[in-house]
Structure prediction request, 1375 residues.
Amino acid sequence: MADIRCPMCGKTNTAGRETCRYCNARLTPLIAQPPAASRSGAEDVPDWLSSLRDGSQQDLGQESSFDGESEAPDWLSRLGGDAAAAPAQTEAVPDWFANLDGADQSPFASPVEPAAPAQPAASMSDAGDTPLPDWFMTSDSSNSTLDWLKLQDEQVAFSQQTELIQPAAPDLPAAPAGDAAEWQAETDVPDWMAGIQGQGDLAGWLSESSETPAADRFGLGDIGSNTFSTEPAAEESELESAEWLSDDQTGQSIDDWFAKTQGSAAFSQSAPQAAHTPAQPAPVEHSGGLPDWLSSLNEASPGSPEPDQDDGSPDWLDRVRARRQADEDRIAQVSPNEVVNPFVLSDDPENDLSFDWLNGSSTADEQEALAGSVFAAASEPEQFAPAVPADDTPDWLRNLNNDFGAVRSPAVTARLPELDDEEHFEAAAPVSGGQDEPDWLAELTGTPGTPVTPVTTASVPAFIGDEDPLEVFDEQPVYSQAAPDTSFGVTPDWLSSLSAEDAPPAAQVSEAEPSEQLEPANLPTWLEAMRPVDAVNLEAFDEASEARIENAGPLAGLRGALPAEIAMQGVRPPAPYTIKLPISADVENRLNVLKSLLESENSPTPQTQKAALSSSLLVRVAAFFILVLVAVLALYIGPDQSSPVLQMPAPAAVLGFHQQLLNLSSGSHVLLALDFEPGYSAEMNTMLQPLLVQLQRQGVFVTAVSSSISGALIIEQAQNDLAASTGDPLNPWRVQNLGYLPGGPAGLLAFALEPARIIPVDVIEQKTWADAGLNPAAGMDNFSLVIVATDSTRSVSTWAEQVGPLLQQNEIELLMVSSAQSAAVIEPFFTTYPPVVDGYLGGLSDASYYLLANQPNAAANGPLRMYEYAYSAALLAVVLFVVIGGIINLAAASLGVRKQPKGRSGRGEAKA
Amino acid sequence: MNLFFLSAGLLAPVFLVVFFILLLVFSGLAKKQRRELREIPGFLQLRKVVGQAVEAGSRLQIALGSRGLYDQDGASALAGLTILQRIAQAASISDSPPIATSGDSQVALLSQDTLQTAYRSAKAENLYNPLAGRLAGVTPLSYAAGAMAAIHDEQVSATIVLGHVGGEVGLLTAATEQTRGQSLGGSDNLSGQSVLYMADQEPIIGEEIFAGGAYLSSNPSHHASLQVQDIARWVVIVAILLGAVARMVGLL
Amino acid sequence: MKFSFSTINAAVAISAGLIVLLGYFLPGLEFIRSTVLGWASITAGFALLAGVLNLLSVHWAKITRTGGTAQTRPLGVYSVVLLSAFLVTLIVAGIADTSAWALWIYQYVQVPVETSLLALLAVTLAAASVQLLRRRFDVYTGLFMAAALIALIASVPLFGVGEVSLLSQARGWLIQVPAMAGIRGILMGVALGSIATGLRILMGADRPYGG
Prediction:
């Protein structure tokens, strides 16, 4: 056999085990066998058996009319699988049975359509929705019938939570009135069932105990409807009346019956009820009304089957009885340790059944193993004392409860929390069976006279997985050695001799764990921090031993489940842990800055009022007033003749300038370039005045050009100023005004090469070069001297670099009149050899020297002298202002830096 | 003819040819390997100012000076246009795009074209405004007056001077200071350099303005030109020293 | 080969630059060079007109701008004055660029305005000089201030004192030696940078003309 996979934990177990060695879950389902019908010598396999065989191949627990959500436990599936190994003897499903659920097939042959999942499983009481067979329904039994059907509702509701098979309750045909045969013919009720009818109202016995749950009527609840109803009772004698299935006389519930009959918990919906009801099962006194076949079972002596009892029992029952007897005989010869493999074909091919347990051909060990794997744990073994197999009671049934403690499905256990309570599994009082009570049943129920061999094992749980599987094999015997009840056949040897000690070696729990122990991994720190290991008190889980059985919630009955309550009690808040990220100092500083910014968000920041008088503005105002006052004062005072400037020798550049002008002859032409901005016109015009006066006095013709845009106006302004200061206003000295010279240095170079072509006419009078007495083709040779008046160093360098070499080639002198700021640039051109610039006037001072040199008798209060006087005074004032002010600012800045914290500059405040 | 001028007449084309060849060679080498440039605080400050303006959404003014391309000072305007393109690319995403003012109409037209090219390269041509490149004045002082007006009217937060500006740049720096802005930049004019040295924290002196392309962009030709300039500078230094020695010994 | 405006622009710019440059060194290209320079001068004139139109557009946009708040919206008064002055000057100069009215505008409007700006510049520079040490206090700043003060003092005879020989010599040495050296070095570096910039344009590496 292949390894069995535990339905709970998914781990593989060795074949033959009943319980999982890891989680103690039931590996093999408990199958409550239908009440052993009297075995007949018929070779035909009973329909119900064959259908069971066939149906077991399918998923028995998938659908049911009661519970569409139930699923077949693995044990049942395996049973079905095992059953599939055996040749399935297909047999036509009896019609009566097929009509039970309205289907043509037995519920085992084909799955019954499940009910709606959201709805409770259709109960027997809902038979109104689904047509019940006629034999099932009576005129006055509709209510009664529905009563026990309704009672099934409660059990069905419980069954939905189980994994057990919830076989569909067949819809029993309504029991029609009338002759049984007629009824049988109409409904294809089997003979045994018809016999029942013959004895009375078929449905009557079914409905007699209207107060009793329907399960009681069948003795096994839905099981009865499935397992026991697949095949009708062959004989009334073989099948007891419903009364024996009911405990209405005693007023006991189906649970009690369960306790009595040691029915399979897998099939018993009343199992939990049985667990919950500690009532001692009272003996059931069966009154009349038992089916003959069932009565015959009671009458039959234990161990003395009456296979040949011709009481209307079906042949299969007769065969079962016969085989049972044979098995009993054989078992009696088998050692207790020998397990009878129920699936081994018997020697008697005629009596060969799918389930070898019926023929007892299996070995005792096999039987024991199978018993352990098949039968779920039941209640206390004492309670479900393996009734000494009566003659009619199959050993499997007799020992059914003993095997309940072998393996328990955890799922089942969870759903049957009460099963763990041993107190619930009290010794079921044997049903006091009457005369009609079959011995096997009596044995099961512990009726007087029935030797009940207590199960020597420990408490046998009422359900699968309820008990430690090892316990099953620890004590023995699981099954009594009483004579097996051969009513239903020979108890398989394996079943009867099943004991814990006889567990096959394969079933021995292997304590061997994987030898290789993996060392706990070292988790990375970040993952370790994510594990809330501290949040759960693992010790609490350790406290939950496997012995603990869950008694509440959906896991009721489950052993070894993690206790939520204990876990919650032990839950502690996760240990605080910090995720410290390594950050650099820069990041930390930025975080501190961000933090300070966030903290300062809500704190109002005082608005820094802009000072009306900033230090910068004050300094500017001070400079303005100082300069203006000094200049005005100097102008007011004015120079005198004894001014130091007049006593100093003139600079060489000034002397050279003066000398070049003196060398000009009358009637020569001079090119005068006025390259200064209108803003500098005051200074430049003041400086040009002596020059123009001298040129006018010497009778020199002047041709003026300007590289400034306002050149023409500049020239005109200079001419008018000259005319205003000297000369005849009515006949002003005229200068040829060529106007603006575009192009910058390139234009200047072009003009120097071809002046007549660049500017052909005068801007004012429109005189051509010829009219002015110039030779257009001569170019710059027309001019004896070139004077450039500029305020920028760039213009100085342009004229000196672009035009100077050309003038030197033509031996034309170049003079310059520049502002004081450009004087330093001209000096290299003056001092070089050959000099490019033959003389220059750099500023008002040089112009004053020139004036004195040219006009020694020039008035001291002339504009040039006055401006120069004021310029020198203002210059001195600026120097003093800069020196003193700089010292004061420096001192203030030093004091401010000391007050401020370190690292902060005061540039910003200085700017303000 | 004067030998001096004759030699000068021959030296100039030779110098230019050699300069050109070296420029090509180093441009090719610069594509493979770039040499590390010395730190110029002015350009570091410029990067910072541009970044701050972009982040604050304030406007920048790039003053390209008052000289045109026909002047000797036109080269500084061209260098200013190169830096203008880089600044415009960086500040194109600003809420207030930069403006470029100049005192010459030719430079004004080129600044418009440069801005458009920068916006196009930044895939933001729709944000280009032709009036961003404008003529502020035709004379240096009128240009200074126009640039001062732009500082107050356009809420300029920083004035970057990159061109030929004289002493009138003091007016620009004073206007920027009054608006609590920043002024930086450089000029090839000596007077302008003196004023900028007083007004700016990190002035760009002399020829450093021509190195802006190498410091602000990754154009290999700019890096190559810096290398060639360094070589030419040493050549000139050696020539001056040799000439001085030759003059002293009477050879010249 | 795909041609685009950028390629055409680059081709025109490079060819024109090479012609002008080579025209300075090669004898046969003088005529071409002068022609190209003449075209450049004409183009510069039209560029000036375009610049003026751009200026008018900017100030017209300032006048007609409606968006923004009262604080952000620029004052259109100065733009109105500018446009008005432009129109008046255009009319006056159109009649005669050197007429009395033009001269009057130049003499009583342009010159005072620019002179005022220069005066303001002088005050600003004086104030900046005062705060220089506080803004940046280091050795170079101290040397700068010292050189400036010596140059200022020694540029003219001291008021009431006259020329101080020591100061004059110091100024002379300062201007002719370190200042001039620095000036020449800066100008030389600027020249080299200008050469590199121009050659990059001739190479096509820099394209300020778009594309």
Observations:
- The first helix of chain C runs from residue 5 to 23.
- Chain C has a mean pLDDT of 85.
